[in-house]
Write a structure and sequence with these properties.
It is a single chain. The protein has 387 residues and is of the alpha/beta class. It is built from twelve helices and 16 strands. The strands form two sheets. Strands 5, 6, 7, 8, 9, 10, 11, 12, 13, 14, 15 and 16 form a twelve-stranded mixed beta sheet that branches. The protein is elongated. The two termini are 51 Å apart. The N terminus is likely disordered.
Length: 387
């Protein structure tokens, strides 16, 4: 059977090389390739890779791209950076960027308002489809059939909803299993959308406090391993997080992070005894006795591997100094290099055991972070952090 242009990889690369040698513009070259071969013959990112590789002088058609480093994804980003990005996005900005967007198998789809209608764009194709329909209705015509597929499983699901959208209420089927769910919204309407999600690893939940509680209770606790709660417009009160602590979802999680407006006291930390790793903000006005009490609490945790505690520093309150005083650690003196912050390291041997707690306290601008790691029998605890 002869190789056809549609399935001959060598023919595709020969075509690209010929375009490069003729010094043709890249977009014109890709359009010509799509006309000569099938439209699905090569995705634009792949075309772009080979175009510029040939342009810079390489002629190796058999180069193995598996050797290239994988591009970073959303889940590779530190939680602190994700906080900063989400925290800088307010409802006004979200309306300005109003659109329905999804990524599927490394392809990007965008449907956004355009006059009285909308435009639908598959970015990998450079092909735009115009419609007189509402952008949500048009986008769902393409998106809904995906969720109708039997036994659907996805690795990542990101949903950002800023206003109630009834059309999304029944989007997800009850059988949809999600490995990682990033959910960011300021509307109670998002709860209706997510009741069918069974995250197997991570649930990132942003919203109003009442919405967080309802959403958390709708997640299947059997599959939940890691839980991140943040982005709350309202300050979560003690009564709110006491309800969260009573849920099966929190009790079965192994990793947890409480971000932004949630602040705990030292005595609240005992509720984290079942977690391998956790992150939270604490009341900055902490005294030496409370710091020692915290150290003693962590010494009794059987599952504990590490935690990150955040404090705000002010002119009146300097948490780093209080930790140094309570733990008997020395504060480094002398000038700091540009961009460098204060750091204190301290190790505490747990009485009647071979285990230790290692403290690393850093100060940057107005933020003090205390990282505590447990060392068992001279070895750092394995903590496959999912946060």
């Amino acid at each position: 059977m002869e190789n056809t242009p549609e399935n001959d990889d060598h023919a595709l690369k020969s075509f690209i090389l010929d375009e490069v040698l003729q010094k043709q513009p890249i977009f014109d070259s890709y359009r010509k390739l799509c006309e000569f071969f099938e439209h699905d013959a090569m995705e634009y990112p792949d075309f772009e890779f080979w175009f510029y590789r040939f342009y810079h002088g390489s002629r190796d058609f058999n180069y193995d791209r598996k050797a290239d480093p994988k591009p970073k994804t959303l889940m590779d980003m530190p939680v602190k950076l994700m906080q900063k990005i989400a925290g800088n996005l307010d409802p006004f900005e979200s309306v300005f960027h109003e659109k329905l967007e999804w990524h599927l198998n490394e392809k990007k789809f965008v449907c956004k308002p355009d006059g009285n209608g909308c435009t639908f764009l598959k970015r990998n194709r450079l092909k735009m489809e115009k419609s007189e329909k509402n952008f949500i209705k048009k986008g769902l015509e393409h998106l809904t059939p995906i969720f109708k597929m039997p036994n659907l499983q996805v690795n990542h699901l990101t949903i950002m909803v800023w206003d109630p959208i009834p059309e999304l209420d029944n989007l997800l089927p009850a059988s949809c299993h999600v490995k990682i769910a990033l959910i960011n919204g300021y509307s109670i309407g998002i709860i209706l959308l997510l009741q069918s999600i069974n995250p197997k690893q991570i649930a990132l939940i942003n919203g109003y406090s009442i919405g967080i509680i309802l959403l958390l209770q709708s997640i299947n606790p059997k599959h939940l391993v890691s839980l991140v709660i943040g982005g709350c417009r309202e300050r979560i009160g003690r009564e709110d997080y006491e309800v969260i602590f009573e849920t099966e979802q929190f009790k079965t999680a192994k990793h947890a992070a409480f971000l932004w407006h949630v602040k705990f006291n030292v005595e609240d930390l005992v509720i984290f005894r079942h977690l391998i790793h956790f992150q939270c903000w604490l009341d900055s006005d902490i005294g030496p006795e409370e710091i020692l009490r915290m150290r003693d609490i962590f010494s009794t945790f059987e599952e504990f591997a590490s935690c990150d505690l955040e404090f705000h520093s002010t002119e009146e309150i300097f948490p780093m100094g209080r930790f140094a005083e309570a733990l008997g650690a020395e504060i480094p003196i002398g000038p700091l290099a540009e961009g460098e912050g204060w750091t204190i390291n301290h190790r505490y041997k747990i009485p009647k055991s071979n285990d230790c707690l290692e403290f690393k306290i850093t100060e940057e601008a107005s933020q003090c972070r205390v990282n505590i790691v447990k060392i068992r029998n001279g070895r750092y605890c394995e903590c496959k952090r999912a946060l």
